[in-house]
Design brief:
This protein has one domain. It has helices spanning about 20-35, 40-55, 60-70, 75-90. Helix 1 packs across helix 4. The protein is mainly α.
Length: about 90
């Protein structure tokens, strides 16, 4: 039997479907600004995302791609998501 592949659960977005579009537009830039990935890493991740979309492979978010590439840990993905979701919330 094959070795089970480690996966991460980025369920923080499951209760925030309205914010997914904002997440997709900002995740990579925020990760670069925080020094978690390089601009070249972002281009590679976006290239993978687009190539998979063209081949009709189910769409993956950049956090998942960077995690699977070994560029970010699940904690780093959560850090970026938390930053984005806090920024996107309306101020009271």
């Amino acid at each position: 039997m094959g070795k089970k592949k480690e996966t991460a659960d980025f369920g923080v977005l499951l209760d925030k479907p309205v914010k997914v579009e904002h997440y997709e537009k900002r995740f990579g830039i925020t990760a670069v600004e925080k020094g978690l990935i390089t601009a070249d890493d972002l281009v590679k991740g976006l290239t993978i995302q687009v190539e998979e979309d063209i081949r009709k492979i189910p769409h993956r978010l950049l956090g998942e791609i960077f995690f699977e590439m070994g560029l970010m840990t699940s904690a780093q993905v959560e850090e970026v998501l938390s930053h984005i979701l806090k920024k996107g919330e309306p101020k009271a």
